[in-house]
Amino acid sequence: MQLQSGQNIPLHTTDLTLRLDYLSSYSFSSEPETCLFMLNADGKVTGDADFIFYNNRSAAGGAVKLLPGHQHANLQLALERIPETIQKIAITLVIDGNDTISGLSQLRLTATGIAEFNVDLKGRSEKAVIMGEIYRHQGQWKLRAQGQGFNGGLEPLAVSYGVDVAQPEDTPTQPARISLEKKLEGKAPALISLAKKASVSLAKHKLETVEARVAFVLDASGSMTGQFKKGHVQSVLDRIAVLSVQFDDDGTMDVWGFAERHKKYPDVTLDNLDGYVAAIQNTGKRSACSGSQNQDTGIICFHFSSCKQGGKPSLFV
């Protein structure tokens, strides 16, 4: 059954599986993210736990689950287990980056075995879209197709649903935290979209004022060869580099590798981040991806010694 925008249908099952497909072309450089908001009768979340996204993938004791995939996300809902205080679940897609939803080649919400809804993307300039809602009506759950565009990214969308992402006004280091995106503008503009998401998550968990050294530890064993070749390791490094800029003001991040033994690689900076993993893969006599796993106790001892001498605590990734 094909749904039109604004159409609603009753749901005759309490175990509902939804799939959100957001196909994009090669030229689409942004990162789509699926977000769910569990709302009360006022259309607002009642707490942080009701905001389901990439960093909080389940709610209501597992009654609602978000399972992200490549250019799609699966949603599993056990409707009979959702608390009575939750009257509505909004299903949204947010574009983090310079693209808009018109840059997608397809945007579709499917209720498995029930119906599907395709969003018309032509000429759309929004960075977010409310795909649909699962809501209570006279004691029954229903599905409403929407496709409603929303200007702005994740933060303004979350705020509209009552998510508290405000930073404490009395935090002495707040000006430096606010300037995170400005730190990236000159040398790493491609990371700004990641910085926006990180800022929301850090504020949500009250981590904006944390100060720490960040160490990125590579599993350089042969089992990781595929992850290196596919660029997954570089992608993770990009995300952690954003956190390093936030947590530490010295502009560098330690990088270690371990296989049969550990090795210290050149520090990551915003100047050498782009293509860093590819650059170190074949340095020296050994590749950055060979051998077998071993413990990296030497790395921990190095940072523990630094901390004992009055340095910042270290976060290992």
UniProtKB/TrEMBL annotation:
Domain called vWA found in TerF C terminus: residue spans: 212-300
Biological process, per Gene Ontology: response to tellurium ion
* InterPro entries, A to Z: Stress/Tellurium_Resist (IPR051324), TerD (IPR003325), vWA_TerF_C (IPR019303)
Domain (TerD) spans 1-161
Q: Which Pfam families match?
A: TerD (PF02342), vWA-TerF-like (PF10138)
UniProt keyword Mitochondrion, yes or no: no
- Indicate yes or no for the key word Cytoplasm: no
Q: What CDD domains does the record point to? A: TerD_like
Keywords (A to Z) from UniProt: Plasmid, Tellurium resistance
Q: What is this protein called?
A: Tellurium resistance protein TerF
